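Q: Hi! First time doing this. I have a protein sequence and I read that you can turn it into a structure. Is that right? Here it is:
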Amino acid sequence: MMSSGADDSDPPENDRTGPEERTGTGPDVGPKESRKERRKKSSGTEGKDGSGRRGSGWREKKKFLYKYIKKQTDFKYRDTYFPYKFNDLRRIIGLAKQTFQEEPSLVECSPPAVVIGDLHGQYYDLLRVFNFFREAKGKKGDMKPGWLTQRYVFLGDYIDRGKQSIEVITVCFTLKIVFPNHFMLLRGNHETKAINRQYGFLQELEERFSKEQAEKLFAEFNEAFTYMPLACILGNSILCMHGGISPKLTSLQDILDIPKPIVDPNTNELAGDLLWSDPMIGLKGYKPNSVRGVSVHFGEDVLEEVLEKLDLRMIVRGHQMMMNGFNFFHSQKLVTVFTAASYYPEKANRGAVLYVSADFRVGFKILVPQKGEGGKKVFRGDHEMSNDYDDGHVRKADEELKWLRGCLLLAVSAAALIPREKLFSDPKLAATSLSPDGKILGYIAPDGNKIKNVFTRCISCRHTRQVTFEKRDVLSYEWTGVEDIILFAQDNNGDENTMIFKKNISENAPTHERTIISNTPGIRATVVANNKKKRYVLIGLNDMTPAYHNVYKFDLYTNELSLILTNKRFPVVITDNDMRIRMAIEEQEDGTTAYFRVSSKANPKELTSDKDQWVEYIRVQPDDKPITAPIGFDKTNEKIYWIWGDGSDLGNLIVAPTNNISDREVLYTATRAQIGQVLFHPEDKTLLAVSEFYHKPELFVANDTVMEDLQYLVNLRPSGSLQILTVSKDMQTWLVTYLSAENPFEVFVYRRWLKSAELLFNTHPELEGYELNRQIGFDFAARDDLVIQAYLSLPPDAPLKRAAEVPVADKGYAELGMIPAKPQKMVLLVHGGPKSRDTYGFSPMNAWLTSRGYAVMQVNFRGSVGFGKRLTNAGNGEWGRKMHYDLLDAVEFAVAKGIANRSQVAIMGGSYGGYATLVGLTFTPDTFACGVDIVGPSNLVSLLEAVPPYWLGFYNDLTKMLGSDIDTQEGRQSLIARSPLFFADRVKKPLMILHGANDPRVKQHESEQFVAALKKHSIPVSYVLYPDEGHGFRRAPNRLAQCGFVERFLHHCLGGDYQIFTNGQYNESAILKSDGFAPKTTLAPTTTTTTQLPRAAVMPTLVPSHVNNFYYPQQPQLVQQFRPTVQQVQQAQQQQFQFNRMNTQQAYPAYAQPRQVVMQQMQSVPQHQQPYFRPPKADKVTSISKRQIQTAAENQMGGRYNVICARGDFSYITNTEIFCQQTVGDVTCYAFKQLSEPTPHVDVVHVAPHHTTVTHMGGGYGGYYPAPHMHGHVDVYPTHHHGGYYGGHGHHHC
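A: Yes, that's right. Below is the predicted 3D structure, encoded as C-alpha cells:
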C-alpha cells in the first residue's frame, strides 16, 4: 500500500500476507520502487515530522482521536448533531491534511475491502455500514470493534445535501489519521469549494458555529480536500474513483503524476474527469458531458480499451444515484455505487456498499431506506439498465441491511405487467411550482391520511413541510405577492363549485388556521388576477347571477373583500399587469365575439357591466375564434399582445395599441401548428420564445438573452422535449421538465447564474425498471382528404417489421417503428373536449394499456385544436357524423397497415370520448369489439338542457359546435338524430359505462337513461356509479377501481393481459349497478400489487374549455418591441399543407392513388417534408444574423430582400426570387425577393432537438388538479388547447 506511517491496527485475520506482498502497482506504473520513494516523488514530503515517522506527540494525538472515534460512532448521534468544539475540529482537519499530503493522487489497497459510495452527509447510513461489521474479528486478542478490522475505500462526496455532513467528514478524517492504511478516502466532486459552498456544507457550518468560525472551518476543510487522492487501485485489478475514465488516462502513472494540491480540478483535464465523467449507454468514444456541463461521457468501447490497456478487471465509481444503490455498465465491467439511502425521499432509493473479497468475488450490502418499503424492488438505474436483487437476508430491523452474494442480477422482463398501483395512485409530488423569489418549491402530495395537501420544500436543501392540513383534497394552489401567503382551492366531491381559501404558511403561523375567501355552497369562485406583487388579488364569484361572475378585490392583509365589478353580461374579463380590469368579452347573436374596453367615463373602482361603461374594441369572426385571443400587455400596459387568426389558418403573434387594434404589428407567424406556448420575462415582459406543437413541441428563440440557457437545457435531455414549468421573478431560478413517452417526468431546478441544472425528483420513480411504450406521431388522410394527425403506441415487447419487409408506401411508417410483425389488439382512445387535443408525452393510461398488450391509437379528429382553425371549425355540427368518420378512418388505416386486427379493436374515452364510444356501438355496431364510456353524454338534447349556469355566457358557441339548438323543432330533431340514446337497440357488443354522481357537465342522468334503454331491450351492460365523484375520478381508490373494472372488461373482450381485480379491492366508493358481462371464472393474477401512486387524469370536458374558467386568467404579459423582418410565410403554409396532403395520400392508398403512382411521387418529395419521417436533429442552437444577409443582398442587387431562416430546403416556396443563402449547422438563411404581398415576421432561431410547450393536466404532472390558474407564476402563455385562451378543466398549458 502506498500510504505510510505506523498503523496501530493489524490486518484482518483472513489477510496474512505481509505489507510488501500486499503492496502492488498497476502494470504501467513503472519500475518497482518503494512506497516511500513514490510518495517523495509525488507529494514532496516524507512524514509528519519530516522523518517518515508520526512524531513525538503522536501518542497524545492518538488518545485524543480515539476518544472522538468512540464518541462519534455512538448510534445516539445518528439523527442528532455531535457537540464538536471549534478548536478540536481545526486540529482534526490539520492532521488529516498532513496525512493526505503524504499520499499521491493514486493510492493502493489490498482486498478484502469495503467500497463505500456517495454519502452526502447522511451519517446514519455510515453508522449502519460500520454496524454491519460489528461481529467481524481480527487477530486473536484484538480488542478493537469488528468494523475497525476491515479495509475501506470511500469514493468521495462525503458532504452536502444531508443534514450531518460535519459528522460524516470528521469521522472519516479521524479514521484516516489513526488508520491510514485501512481507510482510503478519495476525493469527490463535492469536495470542491465552488460546489460545496452552494449545496449545503457552508450552510451547515454556519448553523452550528459562528459566522467567523464557520468561514474558517469552511476554508480549512476545503484546503484539506485539495490534497485528497483521486483514485485507488484495489489489488492491481480494480480501479476506484469518484467520476470515471478520461481520454487522458493511458496508464496508472498518469494519475500518479497529477500534482497536489488541486484547488480547481477543472484545471487538470484528467483530474476533472476522474471526478466528473459519466458512462453513457450506446455511446461510442467520448463526448462532452452536457448533463453536468463539465467533463465527458464515455462509451463501452473506450471503457474496454482502458481496461485492456491498464490490465484491469473492473472499474468502481460513485457520482450517480442508483435506485438500488448500485448498477452495472458494460457487462459488469464497471459498477456505480451510491450509499446514501433515500437520497431523494420521494424516490426512496436504496443505498449500497461494495465488498471485494480476497479472491476478487464481488458482493453488495444494501441499505434499505429508513422509512421506505422493504422487500424486492425492480428498477432501472441511471445507465438505463434494468436490474433486480438475488435472494438475501435482512439483518436486524434497526439496520435493515441486505446482503447480496456475488454479482448475479436478474434482468427485469421487458414485458413485465406494470401494476395499476404504480400508475394510478396519487403522485407523491404534483402541481410543482416555485415561489416568486425562487427559494421555495411548492407541491401537492398525499399526507399521512392520504388527503392531498400542499407541501413546501427548500429549493437549496431538502427541508420539507406540510403547510395545509385539510380533511378534503386540495385541488390547486398559488403563491401571492405577500410572502408566506398562498391561496388554495377545493370543491365538494367533484361538483366544480370551487371554494378558495387563504393560508399563512410561515413556520410560526397556526398550523390549522385558514381564512375563507369563498366557501358558499353552489357558488363557484375563481382567481381573476394575481400578479404576485401586490397585497391583493381579484376574485370572481357568481353570487348574484349564476351565469356571470362579479369581481371582488381581496386584501391579503386585512381579508377585506370589496366589489369592483357588478357583472350581468360578461363571461370573461381581462386585466393588465397592475390587475386593472381593461377588457371584457361577450358573445353576439350573429356568432361573433365582441371585445369591449372600459370607457374613459367609467369609474374603474366601481364598474358595472352596463353598456354605457364599455366601448367596443374589436369583433372576432366565428371562424377566427379558435385561434384568436389576447395573451397579455406590454410593460406600459398600453399595448396588448394577441394570437391573431384573421387571414391565417394557424395564427400570428401580434402586438397592437389597446385603443387601436388596426395598428397592429406581426411578430411571429406559425408555420406548421398553432402557436403553442409564448414565453415572456416575468419582470421585463420581453418576449423570449415561442413554440409550435405538431407531433412534438418545437421551440423558437426570439431573444438572445436566453439562447445559452435554453441550449443548455435542451442538451440536458436531448431525447426529451423541454418544458418550462415556472421561473422566479428575477428569472434566475427555473423549474423545468421534459416530455417523453418512454420516461416519466424528471423535474430539474435550473440555476441560471451557475448555468447548471439539478435533478429534483422523478414523478414516477416506482416505474424505473419497467419498459414503457413509445408514442409515435403520424398523419393520415380522412375520406374527404382532410389531413388528420394521430399517435400510435405499441406494446413495448411487440416485434416490429423492418422497412425492407413492407411495401414502399409503408416504409416511412416502418422506419418509425409503427408496423408490428403481426396485427395487434387495439384500443381507440378518444380524447374529450372535443376542443382539445391528444399530445405527446408520458401517459399513465397509455403505459397501462400497452403493458396489457394493447396498441393504443389516439386521433386528433376534426374539431380538435392545435392544428389550425380549419380543422377545428370542420368539427362544428359534425358530432356523430364526420368527427366519427375520422375515427373510423383511423381504424381502417390501422387495419390496412397491419397495425390492428379488425376483430379486436375496442373504443374508449371520457366526456366527448364517451359520447364517441356510444356512437361507435350504436351507429356502427359492427366496427368495434366492445366499448368503454366514461362520463359521456347519450342525449344531446338533455345535455343542452342541463348545462351549468356558468356556461351560458358561451351557449351560442356550444350550440354552434353541436350544430343545432333545442329552441327549434328542426334543431331538436338534428340533435336527436345524433344522440345514441335513441339508437340503443342497435348495440350488439359489450359495453361498460362509468359515471360520477356529482358531474355538473354531463349529468348522471345521461348514463342512467342509456342503461335503462339497454335494459328495456334486454341488452346487457356493465354500469359503475361513483357517488363521490364528478366529471372524472379524482380519488385514488376510485381511479384504481375504475382501471380494475376496465381492465377486467377488456380482458374478457379482447383477451389482453389482466391483473386480477375484485370489487372493493381498493376501498373505493364504486357501486356496480349492473354487471352485464360478469366473468364465469376467476383468473389467477398476472402479477401482484402492493403500492399506490400517480392518479389518472380527470377526463377532458365535453364542451369548449372557455366555459370552464369564466375569467380570462390575468397573466399580464409584456413584450418588448421587436425589429420585424419580412417573410413569405403564408405561401409556405399553403405549400406545406399541399405537401402534407400529398404525402398523406401516398401513405394511405385506400383513399388515394395506386401504389405505383405513390412510389413515383415519394421520390420527388424531400424526405424531411414527408410527415411520417423523423425530422432531422441539430446538436446545438444555430444563430444566424438575418440582418447581415439581408443587407448584403440589398447592397449588391438593390431593392428590398426578405430573409427566412429554417432547417431544410425552402426552395419549394413559390413566387420568390432567391438571391443568396448562408448555412450554419443545419439552419439555412435564404435572401429572396417577394413577388407577392409579404407577411412581417419576428427574428427567431430554432432550437433542436424537439422542444417545447408545457402541456400538463390540471396544474401537475399526470393531470390531477383542475383550476389551471391556481399554481405557478411563470409568464408562459398557452395559446390553444381546449379551444383557445380560456384554459380548461382537465388539460391546460403551464
